[in-house]
Amino acid sequence: MSSVGRESLPLKPFSIQIEIAEIALVRKRIPPSGQIMYRKTKLQKLHLLYAKLNTCLVPGGTFFFTVALLERKRSLLTEHVDDLRLVFSAARKHRPFIIDAIVILPDHLHCIWTLPPGYSDFSTRWHDIKFRFAAKIPHGERRSIRRQNKGERGIWQRRFWEHVIRDGQDLSRHIDYIHYNPVKHGHVDRVTDWPYSSFHRYVRLGVLPQNWAAGEEVRQMDVE
Ligand code: NI
Fold first, then answer.
1. Which of 6, 34, 36, 144 could serve as a FRET partner for 100 with CA atoms 20 to 30 Å apart?
2. How is the chain split into domains, by residue range?
3. Does CATH number 3.30.70.1290 belong to domain 54-220?
4. How far is the CA of 40 from the centre of ligand 1 (A)?
5. How far, in Å, from the CA of 108 to the mean position of ligand 1?
6. Dist. CA 223 → ligand 1 center (Å)
7. Distance of CA 8 to CAs 28, 55, 114, 166, Å?
């Protein structure tokens, strides 16, 4: 992750999301008669809608996420990695999703999720995970006045980065990016040496060799 150290990130103007949002919007307008009412909506309006919902409208889509700690110098995620695992599994029991790939770094994580068909609300899922994890961390972190007033913990950045996976190639690139990330951030020299990664699951399943190394394209990739 390169420049996600800000508290709030701008909404991403990916055209693919707009297209998908438009499709979803059209689908939502299907009247009881079953006749599909196609309606061209202005892009600007969709941007606003997207910003308002702060959630993607793709039912059952696949998404890449980056979620970071508020204090980037802390290593809470790896220090409490067992708690994090429990939190993920509790959250998934409550609201299911598939974890296609994941890497836990000391102060941030990257992952790819697929939501069940008909579901699109990843924001609530992340809220749940962040809340459950923060509850496991001893109090005493620095908090802004705003957070103090709201009774909010100061563990996570409020916003997270999300990207809609467009196709198989996009999926592969982002999976590779995730597995290469500990090397990218300088924690290890070889992908296999980082323990908190779905890379090991991929090796066990025979998808990747133990000595896998990212290609040049993935090494050059710079997503948040
Ligand atoms: Ni990263």
1. 6
2. 12-53, 54-220
3. yes
4. 38
5. 7
6. 8
7. 29, 15, 24, 24
Catalytic residues: 196
**Distances from the Cα of 94 to the Cαs of 59, 125, 158, in angstroms?**
18, 9, 22
Task: Calculate how far, in angstroms, residue 215's C-alpha sits from the geometric centre of ligand 1.
Answer: 17
What local confidence, expressed as pLDDT, does residue 105 receive?
Answer: 96
Could you tell me the two tokens for 45?
Answer: 């309006």
pTM for the complete prediction? 0.72
pLDDT confidence bin for 43, thresholds 50/70/90: very low
Neighbours of ion ligand 1 (CB under 5 A): 1, 181
